[in-house]
Amino acid sequence: MVKETEAFDTNLDDDLALLTETLEEVLKSSGDPTDQKYVELKTKAEQALEDVKSRVSQASDSYYYRAKNVAYRADDYVHEKPWQGIGIGAAAGLVLGLLLARR
After folding, report:
1. 44 with 22: CB under 8 angstroms?
2. Any stretches that span the bilayer, and where are they (predicted)?
C-alpha cells in the first residue's frame, strides 16, 4: 500500500512538473495566435492540463472509495465486537490525551 502511494505521488509530481514546464513555454512564447509554435504549445498545455485533471480526479475517487470501505469495515467490526471497540476507543483517547497534555 505504501509503495502504491509513493508511486502515485511520484507520478503526480512528474505530471505536475510536465504541466508547469509546458505552461512556462507557452508564457515565454510570443503569444501571437498566428505563430505556429504558440498554437502547438497552447494545444500541448491544454492537453497536459486535461490529463492531469483526469488523473487527479481518478485518484481522489479512489481514495474516497478506500476511505469509505475502511469506515464500513470499522463499523462492522464495532458492531460484531462492541467491547473491543470501546477498548480501542478508550486506548486511543488516552494516548491522544497524554500527547496533548505534554504541550
Report:
1. yes
2. 83-101
Whether the full predicted model's pTM is greater than 0.90, yes or no, is: no
Closest CA to 54 of 5, 7, 15, 13: 15
7-58: pLDDT as tens digits: 555 677 677 777 777 777 776 666 666 778 877 877 887 788 778 778 877 8
d(Cα 53, Cα 60) in Å, to the nearest integer?
11
User: Could you tell me which of 4, 68, 17 has the C-alpha nearest to residue 76?
Assistant: 68
Angle at the Cα of 81 from the Cα atoms of 78 and 87, rounded to 5 degrees: 80
Q: How confident is residue 93, by pLDDT bands cut at 50, 70 and 90?
A: very high
Report the alpha-carbon distance of residue 8 to residue 70 in Å, rounded.
Answer: 20
